[in-house]
């Protein structure tokens, strides 16, 4: 080691290299940093006129796994031969890896630069000095490895007890010993709302759209000068996904969920952090560690839903439907090759003419296509099986839906009310700060007054949002419980309605069915349904034969036309079919012209008035008994007047000889007198419009079979 500097060294520049890898030391514990900056004065005391400080690597590690622009600049300056001395507190400040350290020492030896620290001056051209510098660099690298291994083992041991502290996500904070929920009620409600909306909508992206549409903000964490602060912003996709995928919200302590990866970039090792690891490779996972927002079972179900939503990462697993006419998209698996079937729409604009095809093997490996079949009849067959399962629970589901509608309307208002409460608090705080300042100090008072006005404007803005939300909620038509119960009783009609949401039906099917294994032969499609819960059932759907198509008239409608042809007019047959809610092959309601076309196609006889001589309908019986059709229906309901129907909903057939019996006449007279007394008891002040009652009675009559 030499303690001499030659005039050649002093004529060049001195460079002071300043580096600290710890962020805490850079921001708070700055004594070591100030000591490094003081090396500039030491260089001037030694006789250097031009001294340059390089501090671009503050907060960067010297292990060689990350970019160090300051060190690269130092190497460049040394290579140009303009550096006479490199100052550092110790060898570890220059480099913590042998490659960078020995490379810098070799360059200094080539250009004649020396390395200076508080202990002495080292000339790399001298063999003894170079030996000392090499040993110090090796010891520095070894020291880093020992420290890293010691810290890693200690932190892992503490994490296994669930006591290692790290930055918590929004909604939590570190208590005295354990993780606790954030005491801010608004923060808790915001997290609950995200998780609740995901359970309702089943998609993180749809949750984002809902928050953006309703203009509801979410809390985010920001750090200002090392202090943790909460600010409220409109959410982005990553903020929604972070809440849904973090196990801490399920009350689990998780550590080591990500890993660092090292790659060679341009011949140098570069380390990147934050790569997620599979759950089985997490360092620590302790369930029921603290109070959470959801249960662990709900968290696992959320992860399953998110995995199904990622179609490109499904790994040949089932996928979630994205709307469209296909009800079984993402559920069908080929029995022959085990791959998932894809759905093709021949009419892309209308999203109809569904066909399921096994083409993944052909696309990825060039093998022949396995199977393919039409999807309309298959969807209808599976829908019938689904309706058999959910029909008994339809009423309970309708009642729960009514409660959720009310909750959904209050979610936005409740979130805005919490936002208003915080805005008013900030306005009161700004007012107190303004009132506490001396009015004569206008430089400060004007700024505080401006902040107060901004807070008041914010309060007014949130109040307007609440008024708008309440007005929209009041103007939104509310579905009554009675209407929902009526829909639940007619579940098949609701399911087949064109206005029903396909994505909702897909979600219902995926809740009940785990997977469907499909195969085809010459005559039928074989479906093995794997229900959620472990049960299995087989369903066979006949394939369309040559000359048939999916728009054929339903068998039930054809049977009714066969039974009523020749005995009833085509108009009456159409009314009967419409009462039974049967449709034509293309989904239209029935009319006289359509019934006549079907009857001609089936070669069925037309209406023959001679067959109706011995039978009367409701109107004819009402005219003979001089009563209303309502009285006749009551006589039929009480079985006083015998009557028959070809099918339920068809016109009543009443034997004309029966209506002249004394029992029928006596009962009809009693009911007629009762109706007369009820009409006479109506308030005489009620305005009566001529012909209105008759028109109303005729309207009721057309809605029911005669």
Descriptors:
about 700 residues, alpha+beta, Rossmann fold, 5-stranded mixed sheet, 4-stranded mixed sheet, 26 helices, 22 strands
Give an account of the 3D structure:
Among the domains are: 151 residues, Resolvase, N-terminal catalytic domain (Rossmann fold), CATH 3.40.50; 93 residues; 91 residues, no CATH class. Strands 2-1-3-4-5 form a 5-stranded mixed beta sheet, with helices on both faces. A 4-stranded mixed beta sheet has the order 14-18-19-20. A 3-stranded antiparallel beta sheet has the order 15-16-17. It is of the alpha+beta class. The chain has 26 helices and 22 strands. It is elongated. α7 packs antiparallel against α8, α15 runs antiparallel to α16 and α23 packs across α24. 48% of the residues lie in helices and 15% in strands. The longest helix is centred in the middle third of the chain and has 43 residues.
Relevant CATH superfamily of the domain at 7-157: Resolvase, N-terminal catalytic domain
Name the shape in a single word: elongated
* Amino-to-carboxy terminus distance: 120 Å
Radius of gyration: 42 Å
**How large a portion of the residues is in β-strands, by DSSP E?**
15-25%
Quickly give the CATH architecture of the domain at 7-157.
3-Layer(aba) Sandwich
Mean pLDDT: 79
What fold name stands as the CATH topology of the domain at 7-157? Rossmann fold
The tally of beta strands, per DSSP, is 22
The CATH class of the domain at 7-157 is identified as Alpha Beta
Helix content: 40-55%
Classify the secondary structure makeup into a structural class: alpha+beta
